[in-house]
Amino acid sequence: MPYKSPWKYILFIVTLLVSNVAQADVCVWRDPERTMIRLFPEAKDYKTEVYKLKPDQIERIEALAGMPLHSTEKVEYNLYAITADGRTLGWVLALAGTGEYGVIETVVGLDADHSIRGVYLQRVRERKRKALKSADFLGQFRGKTQQDSLDIKPVAGAEKASTEITRLVKKMLAYEAVLNTHSATHSNASTKGE
Amino acid sequence: MSFFYYRIISIFSKAWNKEGLSMIWMIFVSLFFLVIPAQVKADATQISGGLDSRALSEAPLWGVGEETLNLHGAFVNLRHVISDEKGDRYIFVAQMDANDNLSEFEAYQVYAQLKGSLGGANLRVGRYILPFGLLAYLDTERQLIQTQESIALGIKLDTGIQVSGFAGALDYALSVSQGTGMPDDEDSNKLLVARIGLQQEENRWGLSYLDGRINSDEDIFYPQGNSDKQRLAIDAELDLLPWMLRIQLDAGKDDGRSVSGATLLADYDVNARLSFNSKISYWDSTDEFQEMVIGLSYLLPNNFVFRLAETWQQINDIDDTIFAVQLYWDFSHAL
Q1: CB contact under 8 A, A4 and B68
Q2: How many whole angstroms separate alpha carbon B97 and alpha carbon B93?
Q3: N or C terminus of chain B: which is more exposed, having fewer CB within 10 Å?
Q4: Contact criterion met (CB < 8 Å) for A16 and B51
Q5: What are the tens digits of pLDDT across the range A92-130?
Q6: Contacts B71 to A, Cβ<8 Å
């Protein structure tokens, strides 16, 4: 295999070293409308709210979730406010985790009272996908709030994925409780991170 | 704020097109001023980017890549969303690519999009990926195994206007563009691309039509440009655990000559990090092209992806086998 110039080696190595220093999150949910309509059939529009996370917010999110955030989860978080005729119907949140067979992209819809309206798996490649996407499993989250304990019965044969989905939902509820200051129902809400 | 964006677009356009703003960019800027609201409620900017380093055992008969180890490409993508009091309304995307050890710079997707309510209808103006076949939702630019538009169309990105959206499980896209692949409209001919799609829980289907003159030398190994083309394509993405299959069947004419082709991309997920990838494709025009690829993709920590591929290509009686290694990294971050 011919290599035409030593400079290409140098450039190659330098760019890789530089890129390895950067810490970033690759989670861009660019076409969320279909999932939003699935969770909020009466929705007319949505608004993206981007929050850059502050250290105290990260601490509170981790405390509420009962688990540390991954380094890529400590940078920013997006909430999607679902609207119709000028009213906010609720919020949609998304977070990706890892199952046995790849990324599990989990989406949560919250009603205006901050209880879970529905959970949807945007992408899941687990072998037990049908059971994981079933109402029997995902329906267990319905009506839960951040204050509730999530005692979710896992799907037989997909315990790791079930646990991961439950962890993702817990994290999203914690993100929402800390970042979303549109309602006074969260006693521990803070000022907006932007 | 409007002046700020006008300056950015103006500078970008002039740098890109030395003859000044072409008609499409005049439309772009005019539209921007027409739609921009007096009261902007919120905005958000996201930057993403990536590095694509590759080593090939030899140059392919067609497609991209060089017989060497190099930084094949690097890109930076800026995405800015402006919301009014009802919701997200305007999206601006600008991506610059630097290829071949940062020696060649080019604009990738650069467009403004006016969003209708919840995706029902969107208007896009600028340079974008044509919504034809698998390209409507699959961009393999930074992968070793790629869709075959360089052979089948001779164009991937073009400057124009696109309307797209969805209603229930159906989606649609209609694009009118210059057919040059560049900002310049050299011959004032237009390229029409239309696609209707059906998206279900685990699969999606599409029917695409393309008609117009393509004047592009996008593929340096096999220039397809400067011909009147008509194409009809059926595309499908089938999520059949553990397989992911993507299929495109094409038929049409180049300057009145019949052409046809087919592509099958098949991925098999072994676990969360490892997947096997393959492709088989065929294209029949004045020459006969065949390609088969097998490879693997392994996710490394810190957003790195390692890929291997062995490609066999044949044009008529000439064939070649290429071994390729890729280390890819990308990121996304809010500004």
Answers
A1: yes
A2: 13
A3: N
A4: yes
A5: 999 999 999 999 999 999 999 999 999 999 999 999 999
A6: 8, 11-12, 15
